[in-house]
From TrEMBL:
Pfam families: cNMP_binding. InterPro entries: cNMP-bd_dom, cNMP-bd_dom_sf, RmlC-like_jellyroll. Gene3D superfamilies: Jelly Rolls. This is Crp/Fnr family transcriptional regulator. Residues 31-113 form the Cyclic nucleotide-binding domain.
Length: 189
């Protein structure tokens, strides 16, 4: 809980009564490896804050291939925020890569926080903006770099994830085959 409170306080001032109220709305959820936090074709049920573990955002392309486009690790929010807020069907999956522990908020509880705490919308807006900027910062080099450079950038940006994520998911994130990733790894050792 401490990590969660420290995280939200980076984006705005809240007093103890307000943070206690927010925490009172949270529940914990344990997700086992490969379980889904949110699924394509279903309305997202929660906003989560990842206390332990790694999740990935993925979808299936028109060829039926699984594409991983984002990883999130500890002390970050996890949500398909746009679909959650609108309560419409998600088009991608959020899946546990490792066993995970999350603080979660239902739509009702999330709305209760927003309706009770003055300035909560501004705080969550800044959090969302921060998450989007991180995503863009991590993804944009993947568009213009060759596969080896993309892999080296991945190692640099996600050093704590290298031994926690299956190579098939890293390859998918980098936009290469697992065989290509194996060759790259062999060549840079």
């Amino acid at each position: 809980m401490k990590e969660f409170v420290e995280y939200i306080l980076k984006f705005g001032n809240l007093n103890k009564q307000q943070t206690d109220f927010i925490i009172s709305k949270a529940k914990t959820l344990d997700l086992h490896k490969e379980e889904y936090f949110s699924e394509a074709g279903k309305i997202p049920r929660y906003v989560g804050f990842l206390l332990d573990g790694v999740v990935r955002f993925c979808y299936y392309n028109n060829k039926g291939e699984e594409i991983t486009h984002h990883f999130i690790d500890e002390n970050n929010f996890v949500s398909d925020q746009q679909k959650f807020e609108a309560q419409v069907v998600a088009s991608e999956y959020i899946q546990a890569v490792t066993d995970c522990k999350l603080l979660i908020f239902t739509k009702k509880d999330w709305d209760d926080i927003g309706n009770t705490i003055v300035g909560w919308d501004a705080i969550t807006g800044l959090i969302l903006k921060n998450c989007l900027l991180k995503t863009i910062e991590r993804r944009s080099p993947l568009v213009s770099e060759d596969a080896t450079t993309r892999y080296l950038s991945f190692i640099e940006n996600f050093p704590s994830l290298m031994n926690r994520i299956p190579l098939s998911q890293i390859a998918s994130y980098l936009g290469i085959t697992q065989q290509s990733l194996s060759r790259i790894r062999k060549n840079i050792r």
